[in-house]
Specification:
By secondary structure, this protein is α+β, with helices and mostly antiparallel strands. Helix content is about 30%, strand content about 20%. The chain is built from 5 helices and 5 strands; from the N terminus they run ααββαβαββα. The chain binds tetrahydrodeoxyuridine. The site of tetrahydrodeoxyuridine has 15 residues, from α3.
C-alpha cells in the first residue's frame, strides 16, 4: 500500500462526530463541578485514531478550575500524543458548550487545523475548524519542534 491509501484508511476508520460526542458525554460524568454545576466533557482524537477524554475540574479557588478541553490536551501530551485531528465538547443536555478562548489558544498550540465539534444554541452540534474559532491566533515563529 502507498502512504496515500494508508492515510485514507486511517481516516476512514477514525470515529466521527457522533462517536466523539458520545465519548465526551461519558467523560462528562467524571466532571468535578460543584461550584458552577456546569459539567463538561471533551474527547480529543489523535491522527492514529486514539481518543483521549477528560472533564472539567473546578476548585474552591475558582480561578484554578480547568476546562475539559485543556484537561484533555494536557492528558494527551503527558501520554506522548501530539498529533490531533478533532475534538468534541459537550455540556449538560440542551445547553450550549462552546470552547472558551483560553482553550482555543491551547488547542492551537498543537493543532491549528483541528476540527471542533461543540454544542451551539439549544445544544445542537456544530462543527467548525479551530482556524474559524480563533483567527489570527498567537504563535511563536521559532518553535523548536523538539519533544522537550
Ligand atoms: N468549561 C469547560 O470545561 N469548557 C468550556 O468550553 C467552557 C467552560 C467549564 C469551566 C467551569 O468548570 C465550568 O465549565 C463553568 O464555566
Amino acid at each position: 500500500v502507498t502512504a496515500r491509501t494508508r492515510a485514507d484508511r486511517a481516516r476512514a476508520s477514525r470515529p466521527g462526530a457522533a462517536e466523539l460526542m458520545r465519548v465526551a458525554n461519558a467523560a462528562r460524568r467524571q466532571s468535578y463541578a460543584p461550584y458552577s454545576r456546569f459539567t463538561v466533557g471533551a474527547a480529543l482524537l489523535t491522527r492514529g485514531g486514539r481518543v483521549i477524554a477528560a472533564s472539567n475540574v473546578e476548585n474552591s479557588s475558582y480561578g484554578l478550575s480547568i476546562c475539559a478541553e485543556r484537561a484533555a490536551v494536557f492528558k494527551a501530551i503527558s501520554e506522548g500524543e501530539r498529533d490531533f485531528v478533532a475534538i468534541a465538547v459537550t455540556g449538560p443536555a440542551g445547553r450550549a458548550a462552546q470552547p472558551c478562548g483560553s482553550c482555543r489558544q491551547v488547542l492551537h498550540e498543537f493543532a491549528p487545523g483541528l476540527i471542533v465539534h461543540f454544542r451551539g444554541a439549544g445544544g445542537r452540534t456544530l462543527t467548525r475548524s479551530l482556524d474559524q474559532l480563533l483567527p489570527h491566533a498567537f504563535d511563536f515563529d521559532h518553535k523548536t519542534g523538539g519533544r522537550s
